[in-house]
UniProtKB/TrEMBL annotation:
NCBIfam families: PRK02487.1-5
Similarity comment: family membership: Belongs to the UPF0303 family.
InterPro entries from the UniProt entry: PduO/GlcC-like, PduO/GlcC-like_sf, YBR137W-like
Entry protein name: UPF0303 protein HUT05_30395
Length: 162
């Protein structure tokens, strides 16, 4: 089932792209993946959010958690959203927003298999200064804008502590 999209709630594309330019890591280690993943788990527990959380770097899963209420479907959504980040080097929500800004949808115009790729909110690139996009952090289980916001809120907190 495709998550519902509410255009009236969508932040402007320029704001989303600025967010992506701002949320850049000086480095990203295994320990950083653990700390970021634990921060997301803590946020999700506080909100009683039924999500699954995933962090990948260079093709390796460094963190995964499935909270109460999440399902195997969330893992499938994570994989599909993560593939969008890997292919486009941009947040899955932003990729979908770019297609919508052109008056179309990712599903109609990307020519990619919808069972393999999903340009829905929740997967954000791990962009390292001087290296570029090396991985992704993904949340699945909430409406797509809420998934996106949970990830970006965690990234803001994490990067502000570094």
């Amino acid at each position: 089932m495709t998550p519902k999209f509410h255009p009236e709630l969508t932040p402007p594309l320029a704001e989303l792209e600025a967010q992506e330019r701002r949320l850049v890591f000086p480095r990203f280690t295994h320990d950083d993946a653990w700390a970021l993943g634990c921060l997301l788990v803590e946020m999700a527990r506080e909100r009683q959010a039924p999500v699954a959380i995933d962090i990948h770097r260079s093709g390796q899963q460094l963190f995964h958690a499935a909270l109460p209420g999440s399902t195997p479907d969330n893992d499938a959504w994570i994989a599909r959203k993560r593939r969008v980040v890997e292919r486009y080097g941009s947040a899955s929500y932003i990729v979908g927003a770019r297609f919508r800004a052109k008056g179309t949808t990712f599903e109609d115009s990307s020519r990619l298999d919808a069972d393999t790729y999903a340009a829905h909110g929740g997967s954000f690139p791990i962009n390292v200064e001087g290296a570029g996009v090396i991985g992704s952090v993904t949340v699945s289980g909430l409406p797509q804008l809420e998934d996106h916001r949970m990830v970006t809120e965690a990234l803001e907190q994490f990067l502000n502590k570094q």
